[in-house]
Amino acid sequence: MANLLGGKRKALIVAVIISTLIFGFLHLPTYDWNFAQVIFIIAAARIPFTLASLRSDSLYTGLLIHITYDWIIFILVILSHH
């Protein structure tokens, strides 16, 4: 499959883009179907999680970074309202 797309690197880029878009689209209901916010903010924020998973060869790395990121945001929001 990689050769059909022009090599492993291009196939990886396409896979990251597709998985990023899927991740973003899964968040559409949460963000009131705001496509711009989901694509340019939520989906774009997913890219470092995906790259970390690819570098470590483990989905758990991206998952752990995602959870840590979410909790940092939650804590900052809670602290800013007190």
Provide an overview of this structure:
The protein is an all-alpha fold and 82 residues long. The chain is 77% helix and 0% strand. It has three helices and no strands. The chain has helices spanning 8-26, 35-56, 59-80.
Percentage of helical residues?
Answer: over 70%
Tell me, rounded to a whole number, the average pLDDT. Answer: 89
Low-confidence stretches: none
Shape: flat
Give the strand content: under 5%
Rg over CA atoms: 15 Å
How is the biggest beta sheet arranged?
none
Q: How far apart lie the N and C ends?
A: 54 Å
Structural class: mainly alpha
Q: In DSSP terms, counting alpha (H) and pi (I) runs of 4 or more, how many helices? A: 3
Summarize the structure.
With 82 residues, the chain is mostly helical. The protein has three helices and no strands.
Task: Name its key features.
single chain; 82 residues; mainly alpha; flat
Strands, helices and their partners?
Layout lengths: L7 H19 L8 H22 L2 H22 L2
